[in-house]
Amino acid sequence: MLEYIIVLLIFSYFYIKRILKNKQEKKNCLSILIASDVHLSFENIKKLEKWTKKNNRKFDLILNPGDFCNLNEEQALAGDEGYLVVLEELKKISKNVLYIPGNHDSKYLFDSVPQDCENPEEWQPLPVQALTEYNSRLSDRNIHNKYVKIHEKNLYIAGFGGSIDAYLYSDKDKIEWPGFPFSEQQYGMGFSHLMNAWDKIKKNSNDALIILTHIGPAWIGTTAKHEKPYNENEKIQSGSEIAYNMMKTIKYQEKDTPLLWIHGHTHAGKGMTDFGTIPVVNPGGLCYGRFSVLNLKYSNDQWNIENVEFHSLK
Ligand SMILES: [Fe+2]
């Protein structure tokens, strides 16, 4: 009998130890669904929900880099609450949804838009907000012009929505997609203002940052739209040159390098690329059934990208 009890105790010890180890490992991992550019495709959100159930996937949170809706500038300035319906559908997949507005979303998703100023040329970004106390219940949150701590192990995300004019690589004066609500100068001012705030928020050398924007930096593969078949004269530039110029500096390439930069907007630019030392991910548009899964792991006192999955719904 005594031998039986000893064996049972030894077995229980190792079993509990293993459970605690697994729990700790899980705590140091994040699985994030990136779903961008829904453009009111409820059908594809439903398909995505089915995909997650079928593949038994659970996400700690969803990141949505904007374009919930299909509003033109006039409609966006009039205000619209269509995004709320999209948000409710996404929350069926994970209750934690962090999002920013795209250029086809209501002005109410921005903290301020130049069009509401008496003189839009004089628009200035509002102060950056920061939620630096970690709360495991992230819930659904608009993070435009904000920082949020998304993991107790010093992982933050900063968001900035909206777009600027997209133009032909071969002719900068040829606007292909009109931006909303910013000009390049205004966007650059807002984005720089957001990034400069990191200097005050960052407290430890291992504090990690994910950038979530609707448009990405100019001159990289994920913000270029190519025609099929390829035609150099039709190639579109949809990123921000000011954001590119800021993030190519030694400060961000070698010292304060973000863990990852996620953007949407350029449906055809889906994929992952390296902007120098900064990895950039564009999941493609969920309106075309495309989405990504980002798996992060905290080990050796720092956050690492385990892998980025790219999926396409049938
Ligand atoms: Fe967009």
UniProtKB/TrEMBL annotation:
Pfam families per UniProt: Metallophos
Q: A GO molecular function for this record?
A: hydrolase activity
- Please report the stretch or stretches of sequence annotated as the Calcineurin-like phosphoesterase domain: 31-268
Where does the source fall among the domains of life? Eukaryota
Which residues does UniProt assign to the signal peptide? none
Enumerate the Gene3D superfamilies for this protein: 3.60.21.10
Q: Which InterPro entries match?
A: Calcineurin-like_PHP (IPR004843), Metallo-depent_PP-like (IPR029052)
- Protein name, UniProt field: Metallo-dependent phosphatase
